[in-house]
Amino acid sequence: MSTSHAKQAEAYLQNDAVATRHDATFYGVRQKRDKMAQALPEWEQLRDAASQIKKHTVTHLADYLEQFAARAEANGVHVHWAKDADEYNAIVLDILSSHGVKKVVKSKSMLTEECHLNQHLEAQGIDVVETDLGERILQLMHLAPSHIVMPALHVHREEIGDCFRRLGLMDEVKDVPVPEDPNDPTCLTYVARMHLRRQFAEAGAGMTGANFGVAETGDVVVCTNEGNADMSTSIPCLHIVSMGIEKLVPDLSSLAVFQRLLARCGTGQETTVYTSHFRGPRPGGEMHIVLVDNGRSTILADSEHWQTLKCMRCGACMNTCPVYRRSAGYSYSYFIPGPIGINLGMLRDAAAHSGNVSACSLCMSCDQVCPVQVDLSQQIYRWRQRLEAIGQANAMKKLMSQGMTILFNHPALYTATLRLSPAANWLPSALMNSALNPWARGHQMMKFPKKSFHALWNELSKKS
Amino acid sequence: MKIGLFIPCYVDALYPEVGVSTFKLLRSLGLDVDYPEKQTCCGQPMGNAGFERMAEPLAEKFDTLFSGYDYVVAPSASCAAYVRFFHPNMMEKAGHTCQAAGKTMDLVEFLHDVLQVKSLPARFPHRVSVHNSCHGVRELGLSSPSERNVPRFNKIIDLLRLVKGIEVMEPERPDECCGFGGMFAVEETAVSARMGLDKLRRHMATGAEYITGPDSSCLMHMQGVARKQGLDIKFIHVAQILSSGL
Questions:
Q1: Could you give the ipTM of this predicted complex?
Q2: Which end of chain A has fewer CB atoms surrounding its CB within 10 Å, N or C?
């Protein structure tokens, strides 16, 4: 009865050292986040406020979108609307083609992952260069992100060094001092920086995502630690912003609430190193914003799952998730892993991603860390209830549940079974602890006591 | 005060001594304790597995069975939480109002919040490591969740401190999940067992002789993993410690 996630996770856990390090690394991020949360007396009020602001904004989304688009246009920005990934990809390609762009530099954007933009542009002969260091490493290694905020934290520096050498990045840099350790992090970072500098200089367009869009001002706010969004937009004259329609906040004072939460929750920093507001095109340049729906308005109409639209992609739910930390990003079938990814994957394509719904012990830690109070674990519980209707329920689990239902609905049968259950102790250990019994894979089977509480109650009540 | 004792199915079948301890403890505090014998299960195993619809008749029966009591007390945080937070929605579908939700409590919160027990005759001269189970922490509020910026408290430890001779410890990562999760443990066997092993090691690092907690389900899971891995540590429900000597 293993699900796709369970199988992938089991394979991942074969390497004890890797799994232990992954768990320790991300628990470390959670502890840094805890320290930040404890340092602000108003922390829980901030979470309440953030949740309320998001709820207000997504329930008045049409109004705020119109306000945002009007402000942006007044600021000299070209605003485009894309109903799905195909429309979005076509719009971006059209902008790039009409400007004769052959190379694009990009700062991190989960939306472009969601829409497979890179593949689409590359198929049209456009060179797409990720400029977030982690994303660039993954791009060079032909790997997908395994986390939304720290996408390459699972890759070791030895692998990065090997990749850079194989691709000749080391040779691009003339003056780099040769360190004793060929995979010295400072050296690798320097090489990556020099490599990226040339990409920035050569690019005909810069693309960014958007952490927030401010309806009141038309600002697009991008938060990075590397300044790569600023490099991507300050060398090429053409700037294209990709933004999901749920990224809006009403005004600058509500932005301040999220600004205080985002980095604290995501990485345990008080703020990201760079927080850039893009309000209009550079002198002589052009700025485009593509507002993308791609299923978001359908989610808004889903009474059980609309709250996922409050998410600001900080990744805190992944870092705290005991299952994510022990199974890592690739064990999930959707490109966003962890509690939010289980839910977003189901909303994207339930049949394709129902194998992730098992990846939750319902410990509810994610609900408690989430800065916008998305009811993550309850949504996973609700998805489990939907699996049967969409033909994705596990037959064995259903049989077990049906068996329990018959037993629990018939007290006489239940007590009779209790009387018989100690007999299970006499079954041969080879049978009880066999591979056919999934419980016995991780556990020694339990022993049944001679008498159940039901049986003991009669004795107790007679005594008293 | 009339108390209906709710002994969840797996406690009934596997840990009857936990039920006996709970009964003795409540009786010793002068309460009128009854055990409606037609009780079986709250339905959580089916709900968590994705078959809540199968649990709906159980919620109805539970509500009727316990209608005559002032409080329903269970030595199981997770089952009490299921009644409190899930039964109302399930019964609402049939247009019924759940009465049991508001009066069903885990033993620890009942002793701590309702009876406000300040002394016990119990004696347990051992070092124990407290297992803060997820639903106890994050649904019932038996302790302050480590994720939140709220004043620190722990009702389980408050009660254990009333026991003579005991030494109370908490593991590192004091409220990280042990990996039981009902059907999760049979569906995600590898992750579940790994979480159990990690948790066991942290409990054992405190030097405790016993792991204790308000949920026999977590203890059952960790016990199964410990025995499979040959780890030497004992398990005991909080009710058994609090009732020691009765």
A1: 0.97
A2: C
